[in-house]
C-alpha cells in the first residue's frame, strides 16, 4: 500500500468514528435564567428577569452575596439580602440556585460561634460539618410528640420551685430593658453542665458588647463545650437577623433528632419582629397594628411550634425554647408580648420594681405562670412549694398595708415575717445556679418555718450553711427525695434536727 492510500484509509477510519459518535450524540440544553438588579436599598434588592424563581428560593448575586426571594410579583422579585449590599449595583446579574436557605449542622458546631449562614465568627477556623438542613422546616406532627414529663432544671430557686419548666416546653421570658432577662437564660445554660442537655443560644440583633459578655460568661464556666452560639449583631442586615432564629432552630433540631435534649434561647424576639417589620415595610407589604405586617403572629408561631418533646418512636429527644422579649414601660399587653404570651406555654415576667429593690432574679411571681411545667416538676418540689406561692401572694398584699404603719395583729405579723424570709430565700446571685438538693433543703427549711426567727440580713449566710448540709447528705436520703417519692418520717426528722442545729447560731442575733 502506498503512503497516500495508507493516509486515505486512516482518515476514512477517523471519519467513521466521528460519524458514529455524532449519531449517538443527544444534545441536552439547560436553560439558565439570569436576572438583573433593578434597585437596591437597606438590605432589599428588586430583581427582574427570573420568572421561574420560587418563593423563598436562594438567589445568587455577585461577590458571594445571597438573598431570599420574598415577594414574587408579576414582573419583579423583592429579595431580602443576607449580606452587606454596599457593593451591589443596579444592573448586576442575579442567578437562581434552585434551593432554599440552609445551614450546616452537626456536633462540630458545639463550642463555636457562627452566623445564621454557618460562617464562623470566633476566629477558630472553618466549622467541621457533614450535613446541611433547610432553615425552615415543618414542625413535628402531633403523632410524633409526647407530653412534657421531664423537668428542665434552671438552677434558679424561684423558677424551679414556683414556675417550673419541662423539657419540650416553650417558656417566654419578658420584661423591660435591663431587668435580668439574659441572665436567667444564661444561668439556665450554665445549669445544664451535668444534665446532658445541649444548648443553642441565638443572639438576634444584639450589641457586640452584650454578645461578648455572654460568650465570655459561657467560656468562663466551661459551658461552651455543650453550647452553639448563633450570633447576629444590631448592625447586621435585617435579612440576617430575620433568618437567625430559624437557622438556630434547625441546628437544635438536628441534635433533637439524634435523641438529645436541647435547650434553645432566642435573645430576643423583639429585635426579630422589628427586623421583619423593617423588611416588610421596605417590600411595601401593608402594615397592620403597630406597623407590623399581618403575618407577624405566624412568623413566631411557626418558629416556636418546632419546640417539642418527641415520642420514643421518634428518638425521644426534646427541644425546650426560652424566647426572650423586651416590654416597654411594663406594657405586657402590647402587640408582640400578647402574641408571644398566647403562643408559648407560660411566661416569666421580670419586674423593674423588684429589680430596683434588688430582689434578683426579679421574677414577678404573680404575673408569671408555667402551663405545663408543673406536670414535669419533681414531686419533692411540688410538696414543698405547694403553699409557697399563696403565702407569698398573701404577704405581698399585707406588706403594702404594713407600709402605712397600720397596727398588725400577731397572725398578720407572722405572715409578713414569713413572707420576707421567702423573698430573701428566692433571691439568687447571677451565674450561681443551685443543684436540686441544695434548693430542696432551703425550701424544706422555709416550709417548716425554720428560717422565720433568723434575721433577714442573716438569711444568705443561713442558706449557705444549709447548702453544706445538702452537699453532705447521705445517699439514702438523696435517692429517696429525688427519686420522686415522699421523704420518710425518720429521714424528715433527721433533716429537721440537723437543720435546727445548723441554724441555731443564726437565731435572734442582730
Ligand atoms: N440575679 C442577679 N444578681 C445580680 N445581678 C444581676 C442578676 N440578674 C441580673 N443582674 C444584672 O442586671 C443587669 C441586667 O441584666 P441582663 O443583661 O440580664 O438584663 P436584660 O434584661 O437581658 O438586659 P437587656 O434589656 O439589655 O437585654 C446586668 O448587669 C446583670 O449583671
Question: What does this molecule look like?
Answer:
Residues 155-370 form the ATPase F1/V1/A1 complex alpha/beta subunit nucleotide-binding domain. It comes from Chitinophaga silvatica. It holds the Pfam family ATP-synt_ab_C. It is a peripheral membrane protein. One of its GO terms (cellular component) is plasma membrane. The radius of gyration is 30 Å and the shape is elongated. The protein has helices at 3-24, 157-162, 181-190, 208-220, 238-257, 269-282, 296-304, 335-343, 352-356, 373-376, 379-385, 388-403, 410-426, 436-447, 459-471, 475-482, 489-503, and strands at 34-41, 44-48, 57-61, 65-72, 76-81, 93-100, 102-105, 113-114, 131-134, 172-175, 197-206, 227-233, 261-267, 318-326, 346-350, 369-370. The longest helix is centred in the N-terminal third of the chain and has 22 residues, at 3-24. Among the domains are: 146-376, 3-Layer(aba) Sandwich (Rossmann fold); 383-506, Lysin (Up-down Bundle). The relative contact order is 0.11. A hairpin with a 2-residue loop joins strand 1 and strand 2 (44-48). With 510 residues, it is α/β, with parallel strands linked by helices. It contains 17 helices and 16 strands. The strands form three sheets. Strands 8-12-11-13-14-10-15-16 form an eight-stranded mixed β-sheet, with helices on both faces. Helix 5 packs across helix 6, helix 7 (296-304) packs parallel to helix 8 and helix 12 crosses helix 13 (410-426). The structure holds adenosine-5'-triphosphate. Adenosine-5'-triphosphate (ATP) is lined by residues 175, 177-183, 326, 360-361, 428-430.
Amino acid at each position: 500500500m502506498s503512503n497516500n492510500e495508507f493516509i486515505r484509509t486512516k482518515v476514512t477510519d477517523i471519519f467513521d468514528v466521528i460519524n458514529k459518535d455524532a449519531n449517538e450524540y443527544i444534545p441536552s440544553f439547560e436553560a439558565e435564567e439570569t436576572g438583573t438588579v433593578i434597585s437596591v436599598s437597606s438590605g432589599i434588592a428588586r430583581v427582574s428577569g427570573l420568572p421561574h424563581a420560587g418563593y423563598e428560593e436562594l438567589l445568587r448575586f455577585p461577590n458571594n452575596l445571597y438573598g431570599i426571594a420574598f415577594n414574587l410579583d408579576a414582573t419583579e422579585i423583592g429579595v431580602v439580602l443576607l449580606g452587606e449590599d454596599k457593593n451591589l449595583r443596579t444592573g448586576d446579574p442575579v442567578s437562581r440556585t434552585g434551593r432554599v436557605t440552609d445551614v450546616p449542622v452537626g456536633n462540630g458546631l458545639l463550642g463555636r460561634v457562627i452566623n445564621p449562614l454557618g460562617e464562623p465568627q470566633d476566629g477558630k477556623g472553618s466549622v467541621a460539618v457533614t450535613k446541611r438542613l433547610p432553615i425552615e422546616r415543618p414542625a413535628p406532627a402531633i403523632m410524633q410528640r409526647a407530653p412534657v414529663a421531664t423537668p428542665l432544671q434552671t438552677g434558679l430557686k424561684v423558677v424551679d420551685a414556683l414556675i417550673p419548666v419541662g423539657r419540650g416546653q416553650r417558656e417566654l421570658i419578658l420584661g423591660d430593658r435591663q431587668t435580668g432577662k439574659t441572665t436567667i437564660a444564661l444561668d439556665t445554660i450554665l445549669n445544664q453542665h451535668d444534665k446532658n442537655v445541649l444548648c443553642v443560644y441565638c443572639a438576634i440583633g444584639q450589641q457586640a458588647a452584650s454578645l461578648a459578655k455572654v460568650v465570655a460568661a459561657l467560656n468562663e464556666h466551661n459551658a461552651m463545650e455543650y453550647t452553639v452560639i448563633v450570633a447576629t449583631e444590631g448592625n447586621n442586615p435585617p435579612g440576617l437577623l430575620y433568618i437567625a432564629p430559624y437557622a438556630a432552630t434547625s441546628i437544635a433540631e438536628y441534635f433533637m433528632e439524634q435523641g438529645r435534649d436541647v435547650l434553645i434561647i432566642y435573645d430576643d424576639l423583639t429585635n426579630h419582629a422589628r427586623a421583619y417589620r423593617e423588611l416588610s415595610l421596605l417590600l411595601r407589604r401593608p402594615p397592620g397594628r403597630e406597623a407590623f405586617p399581618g403575618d407577624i403572629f405566624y412568623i413566631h408561631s411557626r418558629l416556636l411550634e418546632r419546640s417539642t418533646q418527641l415520642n420514643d418512636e421518634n428518638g425521644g429527644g426534646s427541644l425546650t425554647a426560652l424566647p426572650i422579649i423586651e416590654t416597654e414601660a411594663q406594657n405586657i399587653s402590647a402587640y408582640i408580648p400578647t402574641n408571644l404570651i398566647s403562643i408559648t406555654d407560660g411566661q416569666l415576667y421580670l419586674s423593674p420594681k423588684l429589680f430596683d429593690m434588688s430582689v434578683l432574679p426579679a421574677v414577678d411571681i404573680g404575673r408569671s405562670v408555667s402551663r405545663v411545667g408543673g406536670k414535669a416538676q419533681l414531686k419533692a418540689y411540688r410538696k414543698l412549694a405547694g403553699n409557697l406561692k399563696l403565702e407569698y401572694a398573701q404577704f405581698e398584699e399585707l406588706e403594702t398595708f404594713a407600709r402605712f404603719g397600720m397596727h398588725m395583729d400577731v397572725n398578720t405579723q407572722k405572715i409578713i415575717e414569713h413572707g420576707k424570709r421567702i423573698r430573701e430565700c428566692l433571691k439568687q446571685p447571677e451565674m450561681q445556679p443551685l443543684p436540686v438538693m441544695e434548693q430542696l433543703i432551703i425550701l424544706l427549711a422555709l416550709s417548716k418555718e425554720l428560717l422565720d426567727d433568723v434575721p433577714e440580713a442573716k438569711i444568705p449566710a443561713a442558706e449557705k450553711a444549709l447548702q453544706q448540709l445538702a452537699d453532705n447528705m447521705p445517699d439514702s436520703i438523696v435517692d429517696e427525695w429525688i427519686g420522686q417519692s415522699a421523704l420518710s418520717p425518720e429521714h424528715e426528722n433527721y433533716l429537721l434536727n440537723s437543720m435546727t442545729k445548723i441554724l441555731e447560731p443564726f437565731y435572734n442575733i442582730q
